[in-house]
Amino acid sequence: MVSLVSGPAEPLSASGRSSEKLSLPSLQSKMKTDPEGYGTELHLIRSQFYSALELFQQQAALNFSSISGVGADPTVAKDLGERAMFLAHVTPFYPKQLAEFPSDLAAFLKSSARTLPSGLRFHVTQALILLVNRKIIDIKDTLALFMELQTLDDRNLRKLAFSHVVHSIRRMNKNHKNEAKNRALQNVLFALLQQEDEAKAKRSLITLCELHRRKVWFDDRTANAICMACFHSSSRIMIAVLSFLLDYEKIEDDDEDADALSSEDEMAKNPQVVINKETAYKAHHKGTTASKKKKKAKLQRAIRSMKRQQRLSSERSNNSYYSPLYHLKDAQGFVEKLFSRLQTCNERFEVKMMMLKVIARTVGLHRLILLNFYPFLQRYVQPHQKDITNLLAAAVQACHDMVPPDAVDPLFKQIVNQFVHDRSRPEAIAVGLNVIREICLRMPLLMNEDLLQDLVLYKKSHEKAVSAAARSLITLFREICPSLLVKKDRGRPVDPKAKPKAYGEVNVLSNVPDIELLENEDEIDVSEDDESGDEAASISSDDDNEDSDDEKSQYTMDGGSEDDDMVDEEDDENGSIFEDESDSDDADEEENDDLDEVETEELDAEEDDDYEEVSDSSKPDDSAGDGGNEDPNAKARKRKLSDFEGQLIAADTSLRALKRLAEAKMSGSSSDLADGILSDEHFQKIKKLKAKKEAKTALAQQGFKIPSSDQLSFKRVDPSKLEAHVRLKLNKEERLALVKAGREDRGHYQARTAIKQNKTGGLSNRQKEHKKYMPLAAKKAKAQRSRQEKNKKRLRSGKQFRGKKAWKQ
């Protein structure tokens, strides 16, 4: 006879072979080890479960329930929960006997979930989760039930059901994704998300967002379903979706983090950064300490800009940037519908700002045209507006080259008139200039010559934020359209005739991009050979000259370009300074030209002298042919000149031989290019040549490169960068904290007399002089000097000159 003990002192009799008392956990372990020997006990526990289930349902029907659930007989609920968990554990060992148990348990939980006590409901849910984890029942059949359980007012149950749904779907897609099964589960959640019931829609949205964030359901269907939840009737659902979408748009300071990496890691990640050896040598070995410091800074900026461009291109190729807005099927319809809701909604200002940011980001990302959006923004463009920097950042993101300039022109003028004027605050002027720069970067056709020249004058401002913003505007238009700037502000642009594209102008590619680099590879190699030769010459000259001579020669060779470029980039001084610099540059160029002319004249004279000497020496050679003798001096001179000419001919022939060898190696590739067929080697060579070209361009442009329209559409505008260098007004607590922070390194304040009194050690030099023993002669001389000074003072005291009298003239 076996007695089953459900609790510590509640035996339940059961037919068996012995009369020992067993608890449910010990009986469960024995049944798992020997399923066939405990069939009778299983039948008994199963009948007890169904009887307790029937009794509980009868009590519920007779309304033996309170607000928190059934309260008449708690032992029934306890027995029911224990038997349900017991049968869930042993179900895998008795699949035939307990075939109907999972469906009965799910049906019971679905029908009576709201009326069950919290403890019983939690135990029954755990039993059902155990059955799902052991794949006895499918998650597709119980997903709707677990989503229903999350809407109940039970925190522990809601957490349990949510974690079970997320982990079950993750485990299902761990090895491979079953699209049919995923689609069925997505349909369940999508249907719940579209319901009017706010609780069900909210739980469905949270589940979808969590699976999407964990990259389990990382497809277009899930992204579109989340985005379309913006139009739910409940404002809470809309706010939750907007915040989820804006979380992907948080600005990541990857530029600074990437620049802080070690050089070895950078070179391992970006092996295509190619810098000319001569430029690197000049930056480290030529010139004074100050000039080398400037060249090193310029070189580092060029390297950082190239690495940043390569990283952005690799991110675009690998699709590392992701936002659910990028996968919208009907982006134009989404934006128009959300904008109409923004115009008619009565939500608070923060919610409107969230809607406005999502609209602007979608317009910029997909390059959409929403003409009514810019006049809507124009109403809020005021310096005193709340969250004005976020609003202006959204306005910048909504601008792209596909929008007609006439549609954005009123908004652009509103920003200029409201922010940039003489009576505006310096921080407002700085923000306005930065916004104008970002808008002109995307739509340069908005700027005209008169307005740009007025804005450029703010470079003379004493406020750092204003002058820096004006100089950044000058730097931008040096690359986009230098003709709009005054001559002294143009600097040395790479392309002086550069102009922005007209509205609607598109460059259509008719060939493989950058294939012209492959065609002009010989010229690039020859230029590199010339640069390496110049480098060797400069190295040999450095051994003979001192640093000052090197700096002077380098400045005359380069025309002061590098230092002037640094000045142009970092500090824009007054107009007279620019004129003086340009005059000095012209003078240097004229001097260089004069020096070159003098050197060429001297070389021509030397060649003429040598030619005359050779022609003179050829006359005795002719007479010697007739039997005369040769002049030994003429023979030596002839041998010396012939050796020099031989060296020149040998160098020329070696260079020609190298060119022929290069042409022979490129013969196969040239034939492939003629056929229009490119191999992987060609594309690798194009990549390397493009890296060399970018290196040269980056060095010429001081690390500044105009991004393309596609890059600008992916770029996220940071509102904090629009107010860069702006010193915000501090309150009293912040000022006091700054003062205390400055006093941390100081010692405790003490008066000077107290310090002298507390001094330990000997006397000071002054005190020692007072106590110094003087000889007798010195004492007599000192006393005599003092007597003489007293006498002179006494004599002057009665006869002091007080000026001439008026009548004594």
UniProtKB/TrEMBL annotation:
Keywords: Nucleus, Protein transport, Ribosome biogenesis, Transport. Residues 768-809 have a biased composition (Basic residues). Residues 755-765 have a biased composition (Polar residues). It comes from the Eukaryota. Its main location: nucleus. SUPFAM superfamilies: ARM repeat. It is found in: Nucleus, Nucleolus. Residues 516-534, 541-550, 560-615 have a biased composition (Acidic residues). Residues 1-35, 514-643, 741-809 are annotated as: Disordered. Residues 86-461 form the SDA1 N-terminal domain. Coiled coil: none annotated. InterPro entries: ARM-type_fold, Sda1, SDA1_C, SDA1_N. Belongs to the SDA1 family. This is Protein SDA1. It comes from Hibiscus sabdariffa.
